[in-house]
């Protein structure tokens, strides 16, 4: 199996995404990484505001996954249909498309869990996934994953400085 190409963020976009997630913490952040160009080079992100995870339609779906989801009503996320449609229309109007998805973990490292996998492959075919762990919001951990029905593997994450040099994010994932 060939090694996946790296995900490349501009320093400004990476810092803005991490700062946005940290600024919203402990509220879960989730959304799309978008671009008008290559699939591994996001140019912006879209953050969802609404979360139907605890609505009557969705709560049982999470609760059936075990005690953790019963005890932690902020574990998991589901965007509202209305907001999803607004986001789609906005992306089309801006000439952008989804290239990846992201979400935060509040209590766990930036690992790709079984529920992350199940939810991802049930909805997306060609998007990669970025997880921002905020177990310690002062030291966020950021990891990218290639996801398919056949495998999950970590992708290299590079941050492109303004001078054009690429650097790996710090161990903490933030400056």
Care to describe what's here?
The chain is an alpha+beta fold. The protein is built from five helices and nine strands.
SSE topology sketch:
Layout: E1 7-10, H1 11-24, E2 30-35, E3 44-47, H2 59-63, H3 67-71, H4 81-94, E4 97-105, H5 114-123, E5 128-133, E6 141-147, E7 152-155, E8 157-160, E9 166-167
Parallel strand pairs: 1-8, 4-5
Antiparallel strand pairs: 2-3, 2-4, 5-6, 6-7, 8-9
What is this entry, summarized?
With 175 residues, the protein is of the alpha+beta class.
**CATH-derived architecture:** 3-Layer(aba) Sandwich
Can you identify the CATH class? Alpha Beta
Class of secondary structure makeup: alpha+beta
Based on CA atoms alone, the radius of gyration comes out at 16 Å
Poorly predicted regions: 171-175
Number of DSSP-assigned strands: 9
Domain count: 1
- Number of separate helices: 5
Averaged pLDDT, please? 85
Give, in order, the helices and strands.
EHEEHHHEHEEEEE
What's the main sheet like? 6 strands, mixed
Strand arrangement within the widest β-sheet reads 3-2-4-5-6-7
Q: How much beta, percentage-wise?
A: 25-35%
Q: Estimate the global geometry from the Cα principal axes.
A: globular
Helix content range of the residues, please? Answer: 25-40%
CATH topology: Cytidine Deaminase, domain 2
């Amino acid at each position: 199996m060939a090694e996946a190409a790296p995900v490349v963020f501009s320093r400004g976009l990476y810092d803005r995404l991490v700062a946005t997630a940290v600024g919203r913490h402990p509220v879960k952040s989730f959304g799309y990484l978008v671009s008008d160009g290559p699939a591994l080079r996001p140019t912006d992100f879209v953050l969802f505001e609404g979360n139907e995870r605890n609505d009557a339609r969705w709560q049982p779906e999470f609760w059936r996954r075990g005690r953790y989801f019963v005890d932690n009503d902020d574990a998991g996320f589901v965007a509202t249909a209305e907001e999803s449609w607004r986001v789609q229309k906005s992306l089309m109007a801006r000439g952008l498309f989804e290239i990846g998805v992201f979400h935060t973990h509040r209590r766990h490292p930036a690992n790709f869990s079984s529920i992350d996998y199940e939810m991802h492959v049930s909805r997306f075919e060609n998007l990669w996934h970025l997880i921002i762990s905020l177990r310690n919001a002062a030291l966020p951990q950021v990891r990218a994953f290639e996801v398919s029905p056949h495998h999950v593997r970590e992708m290299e994450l590079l941050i492109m400085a303004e001078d054009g040099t690429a650097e790996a994010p710090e161990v903490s994932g933030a400056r």
